[in-house]
Amino acid sequence: MQGMQMFFEQLHNVFEFVCVYYSTILGFCAIISIFVMGIIMALRSSVFAGHVFGRAALWCMLIPVLFCGKLRAYFETRVGVHTIFRWYSFLSEHRWICAVYMAGIIAFAALLIYRRVRLKRLIRFMTDSEDDHLSVYPVKVFAGKASPFCLGCFKPVIVVPDSLQGAERGVVIKHEETHIRLGHLWILLAYDILRTLLWPNVLLHIGVRYLKRDLEDICDLVTIQRNNIDTGFYGRVILDCAKDMSDSGRKIGYESGMSFTTDDNYKALRKRLEQIVRKRAYNPKAVLSGAVILVMVVCAVIGLIKANSYKRTNDMGPVCSMCYTGDLDSIFVDDDQSIVTYYDDEYISINAQALLEQYPEAKSGDGWFYFSVGGYYKIPGIGGSVSWGELDAKDINESIIIIPNHSDIDIFERLIMWL
User: Fold this and answer.
1) Phi, psi torsion values for 257, nearest 5 degrees
2) For residue range 328-387, what is the model confidence (pLDDT) as tens digits?
3) How does pLDDT run across 18-27, given as a tens digit for each residue?
4) By CB neighbour count within 10 A (0-12 exposed, 13-18 middle, 19+ buried), where does 32 fall?
5) What is the Cα gyration radius of the chain?
6) Separation between Cα atoms, residue 380 and residue 81, nearest integer Å
7) Three-state secondary structure call for residue 276
8) Which residues in 303-339 are b (16+ Cβ under 10 Å) and which e?
9) pTM
């Protein structure tokens, strides 16, 4: 019974550590993402307003944000301490915020999963389209008016309303197929994961609409050029689908998939149609080269961030702490090795004279000393001590005393160190 109680206590400690640690570093990332989102929204509406592929590339700036949680600059620079470090101080004073942050992640993830599962269940009851030959992916037909969409990263499915027939349905299917082949469904999934982890940043939730607009612009451009579709006819199909969705009020697939038309306002729809009409042919090789360069730049930025961040575990160095049974609340930190002169995996070497000078009350020989040596930290202030020793004050009769070093590294501690 006692062993079971100890197990659950250790398990509780692990959960508490995960809660505090990840709410801290993800909070740092959320703060950074606010500035990054501001840069993205500013650039996409100014410098890159007329560049379809350029606007989409801007969203890659969010990828390195997830690696910014352990930057040394937060703790070791004046600017970091007076700005982003305040989140750390706030959590230290209000530990319950950590639980709220993690609960928010769980709740938001559950909501997104529920939407996807609900939509997949709806698709199961839809009939198969007779136009399966138009696509390599399964095509389902929705009875009624709604915007066409695609869904599913591992098993993609295209859904079209039965109101679309003939050439219009063919254009829509090619459009959704392009979304799938360009990996847009995977991009949306990655973005959903990002805004789940950094859910306090409201800009990320607002930005999903603009991300989908940029992906739609790319899809329009690629679909028209690859399939040699007339831009006028393509634009009329978009208008018809937008009208059908507006009349029916159905937004099936919009929240969890890539929808052919969205519930955007008239201004956004007009801008999309104007871009289709002004369509210019793009060079696939140039776009591919730009994508390769973009990947290299993102990887380089991530590498630079990792090089200036704390490691998974960081050695605390020869810093030891100790206390005496006569005053357990008073903890002395021996940072100059004046008392604990040396330690390894098996033994701890103690200077008895220096120890008694620090604790003169121990000369009576009544009490115990407890030593904590070594240890690690994930980020400053969050870590653990991995070994300890104890000494009976009655045994202090030599200038140098050697005591056994006990290690507390168990499976739970190794799990924490691995995180």
Assistant:
1) -135, -170
2) 667 777 777 788 888 887 888 888 888 877 777 777 767 888 888 777 878 887 777 667
3) 888 889 999 9
4) buried
5) 30
6) 12
7) helix
8) eebeeebbeebeebeebbbbbbeeeeeeeeebeeeeb
9) 0.83
